[in-house]
Amino acid sequence: MKNKITILIIASIATVIALSGIQAYLVESAYQLKKTAFLQETNDAISDIDNHPELDSLMDVLAEDLRDNLGDYKNERITKPEVIQKLRIKSDSINIPYMQRYDKELKTIDLGYKIRYKREISSVVLFNGKQTDTIFPIPTIKDGAILGEKFDNKDSHTIKTSRTFTEFSYYVTGENDSIYSKALDVEIKTKDIILITDWKSIVFRRLATLLVCAVLLFLFVVGLFYYSIKTLINQKKITEVKTDFINNITHELKTPLATLGVASKSLKNKEIRNSAEAFDHTLNIVDRQNTRLQKLIDQVLTNSLSANDIVLSKDTVVDNEYFEDLIADFKLSTQQRHLSIINNVCAEEVLLRIDTFHFTTALFNILENAVKYGNDQTEIIIETSLKGNEYKIEITDNGVGIATEDIAQIFDKFYRVSHGNVHNVKGLGLGLYYTSQIVNAHKGKISVQSELEKGTTFIILIPIN
């Protein structure tokens, strides 16, 4: 049974992990789709800005300057880095009017979120037949930003790439100072980059409903899994406790029933029936065993009551007198030779409103446990004190103690500690349950402090009206 439950728990955990992984994958996929849709939406909204006549004319100025610089480069008047440097000088001169017009167009579109824009040159390559000459990028210059704002490319997005392949002419000085034009092919690649401020927050806001539903569903599944496993374990414990109770009550009932069987057979014996002394002795056995059976049944019925089912008949008693009588009655009922009960009831007299019958039975259960699970020299200390409107009763013994894992269940119905030599002690697991219910019926609280081999202390707090 235990192995099956372990396998079931492992399988359930694996299933929850698998479902969580699938859910995370679906959320990630939805996030990527929303991100792509958002960027495409932005791209579509600003795609027409580049086609504005004023922006095109400024780009033509920049392209014309680049052609002049490339002509100077072919005539060996400037170097490659100087080509890019001159291009940047020119771009700086037109960048302000370019961005003014660009920002004006952005405001017209009114996207609802801020965009930072820049245009970069990816490469500039000259072609002379099959030969190529890369002007940009070169080892000394890799930053190709020419227009727009300056910002880090991290978290930015390329919304447009372009490739222009054109032929232009430049003048070359030949022999005898003759001047003639020469054609040159050039390939220019550019890309438009935007940085959307808080784009992640925007995408997450659009995913808010899905994320909330996913989180709630995940919490629901985990909560359902936890509840199911906890219920399963509790049911297993209840089953074990009930089985233990059935075994205990069966064992308790077998002895008087067996004795009654022997006694009933003896009464059929003529010799027993003809002997008045033997007959009376046998009848006394039947009477005692019948009384024992009745007490067992009453214990099961009475001690199974909850605090709400118990009807109290309260009396006013003086604590000193009550505990003196309690200790005297308990010593008389146990008749254990090596039992020492120390009475440390507070000196100041306190009037208690309790149901003496039920409350005494509850305290007897604690004292009986101290004797059952005690050692050869059992010592019990009863100490009381008054704090505010609460009367505190502490019952401490020097017995075997209770393990930490058992303390939380010590007041459960039918629960019996299954450690150490406790198996040798008879009981139905109802005594401490009944005690806790009696204390609760008096609107009080009960707790226990214990350590193995160092004894146990039961603490009862009841209100003083």
Give an overview in words.
By secondary structure, the protein is of the alpha+beta class. Among the domains are: 160 residues, no CATH class; 149 residues, Heat Shock Protein 90. Helix 9 runs antiparallel to helix 11. Strand 1 and strand 2 form a beta hairpin. It contains 11 helices and 12 strands. Strands 1, 2, 3, 4 and 5 form a 5-stranded antiparallel beta sheet that branches. The chain has a 5-stranded mixed beta sheet with strand order 7-9-10-12-11, with helices on one face. 19% of the residues are buried. The chain is rod-shaped, with a radius of gyration of 47 Å.
Provide a brief overview of the structure:
With 465 residues, the protein is an alpha+beta fold. It is built from 11 helices and 12 strands.
Q: What is the 3D shape?
A: rod-shaped
Estimated radius of gyration: 47 Å
Number of beta strands: 12
Percent range of helical residues:
40-55%
Cα(first) to Cα(last) distance is: 51 Å
Low-pLDDT stretches: 419-424
Structural class: alpha+beta
How does the major sheet shape up?
5 strands, antiparallel
Portion in strands: 15-25%
What's the helix count? 11
Following the backbone from N to C, one meets helices and strands in this order, namely: HHHEEEEEHHHHEHEEHEEHHEE
| Mean pLDDT level | 83
